[in-house]
Give the backbone structure.
Amino acid sequence: MDIRITFCGAAGNVTGSRYLVEANGQAIFIDCGLFQEWKFKQRNWEATGVPATEATAVLLTHGHLDHCGLLPRLVQQGFGGSVYCTEATADIAAIVMADAAHIQEEDARFKAKRHRREGRRGRGPVEPLYTTADAEQARRLLRPCGFDEQVAVGPGISARFVSAGHILGAASIELRIRQGEEERLLLFSGDVGSWDMPILEDPVAPRAADYLWVESTYGDRDHDQEEPVAEQLARIINDTCDAGGNLLIPSFAVERAQDLLYHLSGLLHAGRIPPVKVYLDSPMAIRVTDVFRRNEKLFDADAREMLRRGDHPCDFPGLTLCRTRRESKAINEEDAGERRGGGGQATKVIIAGSGMCTAGRIKHHLAHYIDRPETTLLFVGYQASGTLGRRLLNGEKQVRLFGRERRVRARVEALHGLSAHADRGALLRWLSALETPPRHIFVTHGEADAADAFAQSIRERWGHAVSRPDHLDQVVLD
């Protein structure tokens, strides 16, 4: 067998997921993700693996930015092959890439303006990593496939997408490569979800693989959860109502926002919280929620039962979708009107991006409410080091928003248990379904310490051959 693998991303870190598979004269990328961590962002500009014009296909595990967000750059550099993914992933990836392109263009304009202001001449024009036109061209290359469908990718190469339970449409990818009388089965986990998560079916664990790539985002820990998510959320909302304040939730647009709507719907229909007003103030999250509505066949039994009763997991009385800036501004203007009129203020739940408070509409709501002690700020996802979200979560009492220093009087909470990534125990459960030992397991998509710890867990439990590759490592599969 002659199969070469290059680890182009998500090796020793958790973003920029991309593997290059070279076999049978084909050059196939598994994922094509954006590096989001600041110290690795330069890698987005670097050519990796093979020239884009020589790549023959891309297979996407799912539609998160760190798995599909570099595809427009590949297209810009000359890639014109097919991009295979599930139907829901195609819809979500199109939204994510368009949004990322807009941000790239805005960042380039802002940087060029700053250079002119600071008199930095001779640096040349500031170019975005890619444009909205590149993202649109990438969208046109998407080829939606069904789960469990065998897809011919190249001579002697086929792929199958198997549900990974991470986000809507997320898949692990089985890649079968035949050379002469020999065949090898390569399995790329993508991001694996947990069991018993809202809306989605559980992950489908693998039965066999000759070579296996497994993520390790939480490979060194388990999600300790003393209180169910619904219980935590009900307590926080009721406490905020009792205080006469509003609940601000910075949220990621893909899956996290929809999970929150699911829990809010259940709590409201069960009468466990008052009939609060809920605002989904994120055009991107609204578009992703529309994708959920078009893919109800992927819902789990509990979500389908809600539909049968006439209740949608992502909709309920009192939910307002804010698509425009005017609608977003009206949320806070309504609050100001109630205060001027002397009326009692009803608690509002405001779900807005970005999830780490680095940009987006949540910053405007923070500026409006963060100095009020009756306000609750609820974090529902990971807050990276250095972000405004991490600083607020760490207890900073003063932050700068829109050029002004703001005192932090709001109560800050964190909701545990909504992670879309499997923890160590769930990842081991996923691997335990293997009926025969793989020839080798590659532990990827995790910080080095987490990946090393998970590799050791695999060795101790099963004695499998396992390694943790570094960026741009290459292996030839024998």
The domain at 3-221+420-477 is CATH 3.60.15.10 (Metallo-beta-lactamase; Chain A). The longest strand covers residues 171-179. The radius of gyration is 23 Å.
